[in-house]
């Protein structure tokens, strides 16, 4: 069940991440430079490389901040009367957390609507990220999802050169729904990089 639940949200996060990367060529270059430094061009990126790819992780975290896979997380029901944000909430009320709004709140984030991966270099920023929820009821698939997204993105950047199929920027309009998807699917052209030609001669 966990694998099935994570498939759609992981694919969506990959699409948002690639869209952000292609809309910001300087970000693509930084990821590629990091891969060249820590992995090189004589082998493919491996899971053991991921802890060294801090900028790549920042890009994924910033994508999750702006485009959380489940913008309202999962519904919760309180077992007793409680106070939330100064409001008395009766027992057995369905409670939703608007993580999309929280992660774009200018009181919590500087330049809240700007895609800025380097913000996560600053101490304390990562602790504010709640795309997977928090506490005992956080998403149990977070580690698996982050590994899958990190490995896939790293390989897409390492192995291919990317170009937009049209002039201008990629449309970042969101579609309504439980899982946050792009209104207009990502379209891009890729061609193999020399690393692939060397490895598969």
Automatic annotation (TrEMBL):
Coiled-coil region(s): none
Cofactor requirement: heme
Cited Gene3D superfamilies: Cytochrome P450
Protein name: Isoflavone 2'-hydroxylase-like protein
Alphabetically ordered keywords of this record: Heme, Iron, Metal-binding, Monooxygenase, Oxidoreductase
InterPro entries hit by this protein: Cyt_P450, Cyt_P450_CS, Cyt_P450_E_grp-I, Cyt_P450_sf, Plant_Cytochrome_P450_Monoox
Family affiliation: Belongs to the cytochrome P450 family.
